[in-house]
Specification:
The chain is of the alpha+beta class. It has two domains: 42 residues; 151 residues, no CATH class. The longest helix is centred in the first third of the chain and has 26 residues.
Length: 216
C-alpha cells in the first residue's frame, strides 16, 4: 500500500496542476480584448445607449465577424458564447456605384451612414442582452458595444487613437454594424476548447485519486 501511495502522489500533484492550468486557460480565453478607454482615448461613448464596450485585439487585426454569430461566440464577446445574429446595418453599392446603407436588422431601425447615425428599437420584450459589433477594415478591428432596448445615436469608433490608421487619417467610416442578441434570462456561458476539457478532466481524475489516497 505504501508503494501505491508513493506512486499516486506525483500523479495527483500533476493532475491537480493540470486542473489549475485548465482554469487558467479558461480565464485567459478573452485575453485578446482591449479596453475602450485608454490614457489618451475613450471610444466608450460612441454609442449613446452603450453599457459596456470592448475592442478585439490586435488593434489593427482587420477581422470580420463572419460567420455570424459563430465568430463572436467563438471569441466570447463580453464572456457570452450564445449570441444570436439578428441582422446588420451594412454598406453596399447601388446601381450607380454609390455607397448606400441597407438595414436587415429586425430589432432596430437604423438611419444615417458610415460616420454617424441613429437607431430605434422596434423589437420585442423577450430580449435579455443586445450587442452592436462595428466593423471597418485596414488599421482597425471589431468593436463591440452592449446596448439597451432604447433609441440612440452612434458615431464611428474607428479613430486614431486608439487605432493605428495610416497616414494622417484620424477617423474612418463604419462598413457595417452587426446586431446580436440573447433571448430570455439564460446565464452567459463559455464553450470550453477541447484542450481545456482534457486538462480539466485530468485535474478532476487527479483530485479523485488524491482523495482515495487520503482515505486509505
Amino acid at each position: 500500500m505504501k508503494n501505491l501511495k508513493t506512486y499516486l502522489k506525483p500523479v495527483a500533484s500533476l493532475s491537480a496542476l493540470a486542473l489549475v492550468l485548465g482554469l487558467s486557460v479558461s480565464g485567459a480565453a478573452r485575453a485578446d480584448f482591449i479596453s475602450c478607454v485608454g490614457d489618451n482615448y475613450d471610444i466608450s461613448g460612441k454609442v449613446s445607449t452603450a453599457t459596456a464596450c470592448t475592442i478585439l485585439g490586435p488593434l489593427d487585426g482587420a477581422q470580420n465577424d463572419n460567420p455570424m454569430p459563430g465568430f463572436v461566440n467563438g471569441e466570447s464577446f463580453f464572456g457570452i458564447s450564445d449570441w444570436l445574429f439578428d441582422g446588420k446595418w451594412n454598406s453596399e453599392k447601388d446601381a450607380t456605384g454609390a455607397t448606400i446603407f441597407v438595414d436587415t436588422s429586425g430589432l432596430f431601425d437604423f438611419t444615417g451612414g458610415g460616420s454617424t447615425g441613429a437607431f430605434s428599437y422596434v423589437g420585442g420584450t423577450g430580449i435579455s442582452d443586445i450587442m452592436f459589433v462595428f466593423k471597418d477594415g485596414a488599421g482597425t478591428n471589431l468593436v463591440g458595444y452592449r446596448v439597451t432596448r432604447t433609441n440612440g445615436i452612434y458615431d464611428t469608433p474607428f479613430t486614431n487613437p486608439p487605432f493605428p490608421l495610416s497616414g494622417n487619417t484620424t477617423e474612418k467610416d463604419v462598413s457595417h454594424i452587426s446586431v446580436y442578441y440573447r433571448e430570455g434570462g439564460t446565464p452567459p456561458f463559455q464553450i470550453p476548447e477541447p484542450g481545456m476539457l482534457l486538462l480539466l478532466g485530468a485535474g478532476l481524475v487527479g483530485l479523485g485519486m488524491a482523495r482515495r489516497r487520503k482515505a486509505a
